[in-house]
Amino acid sequence: MILNIYLFRHGQTYFNRDHRFTGFKDSKLTPLGIKQARKIAKKLKSKKIDVAYYTHVSRSKDTLKEVLKYHKGVKKIKDDRMIERSYGSFEGLYHTTIIKKYGKKLFDKWHRSYNFPPPEGESVKQVEKRVNSFIKDLIKKMKKERINVAISAHGNSMRPFRRYFEKLTMKQMMKLENPWDDYFEYHVKT
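Request: output the structure for the sequence above.
Response:
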């Protein structure tokens, strides 16, 4: 038996649009973000979803809410192991503010390196550790309960998901750009 995982990123938020570090802060979907969520929903309309995962922030919940408009009786589970990367003391700040204060080279290192966390924040390596814990538990649950799942994730938490299921190297994972209006489908064999 083949079980399915439908993984997608939340729609665009105001912080995304304005190039601000979001992390654990809550930023609502923009009107475009809502359209993107509806586009994902239409693409997933005919898929069988038994359980849906989201994080505690509104962008994850609200994107999932659009997807589930086409699916009745889906069990929803909150799990913050797949929440966005913490940007620590940079959360809420504009990218340009950090670039002006610290320079583009250091900004790029904080923003896009695997094992260099921003002050008081997480590295992608740390995000990968918690996402991999989630994946391990998810696969066990899927096989035991024979369920198909939808996951309303975040840009940086999707990187480790994709690395795991697509067998990517760390460098390949770090180059990924995750769309706001599409999904990835992965299969789990029982």
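The radius of gyration is 16 Å.
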